[in-house]
Input
Amino acid sequence: MSTPINRTMTAGEWGMLATLSLLWGGSFFFNAVAVAALAPLTIVAVRVTVGAVLLVLAVHMIGGRLPGDRGTWAAFAAMGVLNNVIPFTLIVWGQGQLASGLASILNATTPLFTVLVAHAFSDDEPMTPARLAGVVVGVGGVVVLVGVDALARAGDALGAELAVLTASLSYAFSAVYARRFARRGVAPLAAAAGQIAAAAAIMVPLALVVDRPWTLALPGATVWSALLGLGALSTFLAYIIYYRLLTTVGSVNLMLVTFLIPVTAILLGALFLGERLSANHFVGMAAIGLGLAAIDGRLPALIRRRIQA
Output
């Protein structure tokens, strides 16, 4: 039986989703810094290794234990491939060739894929007209927010663009697949630790064989700081929040974070870097908000109440 989920999120859950958008939005910046000095597989291997060490330590610090049965660890390995190995590697590689604006638009297709995957492979997250319309409006809002001119460069690096789209599809499958851990009774922190540990077990030998990182020049302090940010913030802390939200809001609502990542990036730029907000930013944010409300269920419910009043 599927774990019950709240389609309409509480204020606290929206707060956690916004925090997750900051943590994952930061990964695009950290990737951009690290990819200038290191190969993609090495970056991902360091990221998941740092994250795994911190998560396993956190599990033991609270007196918890990781599951010991083969079935759960096989699920951890599958989740690690779907949610870390494939998307992390493809996004890092793609960012070496794509402008960040176009990458964020392609990444924002994740909720669209998730609506389709959840409808096909889950029994309590059906694709409704309001939900599908909300995703389409949200994707449109991201395009307006980032700037239509970003799409004008689409096709210049088709391989990299397909890589980021494939990463988005992989995230969609992982979000639906991950709900099985709650059904198995695996605590959110243990699920996060098991998944990232499995990803590290795959990525470290792969990076050693393919990248031979010991032959590369030793990175500087800026790159090491970016790697630490990827592991400690965008992985360790982010996946604690990810699994906590997944158990209550469902995979479709959780993947709305990809709509919020461009919003938080632009707002942070305005607050701390003195960047100016233009009309397209406000229109894009309004469209994203409308899409989020439709998918969350608040907007359709409000319309129904108005009609019935």
